[in-house]
Structure formats: C-alpha cells, structure tokens
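Below is one such record:
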Amino acid sequence: MENNSNILYKFWKNKKVFLTGHTGFKGSWLSIFLNLFGARIVGYSLKPEKKLNFFDLANLKSIVEKSIVGDIRDYRKLKNSIINFKPDFIVHMAAQPLVRYSYDYPRYTYEVNSLGTLNILNILHEIKFVKSALIITTDKVYENKNNGAYYKENDNLGGLDPYSNSKSCAELMFNSYNNSFLKRQNIFVATARAGNVIGGGDFSLDRIIPDYFRSFKNKKIFLRSPNSIRPWQHVIDPLYGYILLLMKLYNKEKFSNQSWNFGPKRSNNKSVSHIIDMINSKFNNYVKVVKKSAITDNYYESDVLMLNSNKAKKLLNWKPKYNLSETVKLIIEWQNNYLKKGNIFEISQQQLLNYLIKK
C-alpha cells in the first residue's frame, strides 16, 4: 500500500490554493502544511495585528507565492486577486475569531464573518472557474442547549453572542448559495466546524494558551468560566481533516456540498481550568486560576460544547490523533523552542511531519 504522505504529495504538488486569513494562527499552520506537500499558495489577509505573531516568526512570507494585504470586505480587490491567481482551491479562513471582541465590535464582526463569507460565495458564483472551496466556521454555530449533547452537522444552528451568530449566518448563506447556485454550476463547496483549537504559535488576546503564557509574571490567569467544558484539540488535527475534505471536493464526491465537524477525542472534552492544571504540571510551573466577577464581565459563555465527528470519520477516513496530554506536550515543545530562540518554521514543520507518521 502506498504511503499516505506520498499520496498527499502526489495530489497537492503544484495545486494552487487561494487562502484567506493566511497570516492568522490556523492560516499559518495550514500554509506550512500545504507547502509541505508542494502546493502553491497565495494568501489574502490583513497584516498581523500583533508585532509578535506566528506568520512573521516563521518567515512564512517566504513559502507563499504571494502574500496580499487585503480586507475580506473589499469585494473588488478580493475578486481580482482570485482571478489573477486562477486557483484550483479557495480556502476561506479570514475571520474576526474572538467572542469577547465581538461584544465590543459587533458590527465589524458581522461584516467580516458574515459578509466576508458572502463575498467568497458570490465570487465563486460569478467567476465559475474555481470548482472547489472550503469555508471554515466554528463549533459555536450550533444552538447550544448546554445539555452535554454532541452536536451533529444537521442540528439546529444558533449562537447567542455576536461571534457565534455571525458564523451561523455564514453557514446559512452557504446553504442558500449552495442550493441556489453552486450545485447547479458544479462548484463543490463545504463548511468545516472545528473545536477549540490550541497549539504553538497562538499569540492572540483572550485565548487560553497565549493568556497562560502571558500570565507568567503575576502567576494569575483571570478566566470568565473556568469550569466550562470545551472540545480541545491540537490545531493539526482539524487541519488534516480540511486537507482530506478538499481532496474530496476536487474529486467531485457526491457528499461534498455539506457541512463537516472535526472534533477531538471525547477524552479531550475538559474544563478550562483542567487545561491550566495540565500545562502547569508539564511546564513545571504554577499559574493560579482566578474567576472573573460577573459584575465586571457580563459576556455570555456556554457551559459545555462538544462535537460529533462520526461523519468525517466514516466518509473521510479521518480521526483525531492527539489526546489532551499529547496536545499539551506539543505546545510545551513549541513554546520552549520559541523561548530558546529556535527555528520556528522547522519546529512547526517537524510537528506536522510527526503527525503524518503517527498511527
């Protein structure tokens, strides 16, 4: 039987991928992943917001064919950029990804997450020549009843906070365009919903891993809902699922025009404070969890959120590989390399290579 890495390399070599949000955390990891298989990448994104960011640390501008600084809301520039590259695939990751920020800037969140997705869908409809596209949303698109259920792709959409709701709107737009136009045009599009992705290279504000490492000085981390349960997964796991799904889209599989969950192992569904305890233990450190007062922080946070990924396991032959202990170990390995001023691109690429050979 042919080695899986060889199959991936044969498929992806010289395939052209137009990737929005390529300077972000997940976009940076996906750029390295696709580059590993010989894909040609043009990225379209805003400049990284923070001076300290994965994209620049790993010098990822050197591995993409072109890095376009552009706003996903700029329809003309976005469309012209896609037409000029003539990609085989569009992967839409550009987003305003933070729940808390969405409360402070709700209109901006809807414009980027909902109307940005609308721009991609309408461009696909208008230009017609791109036949394969993947739109990344979130596990938070579901109408979450906080009852411990594992949400499946056909469960009701919802979302109370502006971020979750804006992504639910994006899913509804996909469903409408898919049924009204894209299927008839033989354009194969899907949406992907992943869990709470964590991994090395995340320097965002108001996210658990970077907040933990920023809390080293005062030894305290302030959390809104330390007991909330989340589907934690290493970022590589869902990205590999996206790659497999894109291959199905390209091959025009009959089940392509759908939504897909990519969640972690069930044992990874743990509380926020549990993650902190694990990192403390493996990093030989102690950061204390302090619950934020409801008086000063009134943002809604669901108590429990979990995904059913049986469809991806059955139809894509995908499965999550890393348990929570392995995930945290990889984060510590990446962070130690960063603190020692090691080569960020090399450690990230090596973690991807190790993933491919893991059973």
Observations:
- The mean pLDDT is 93.
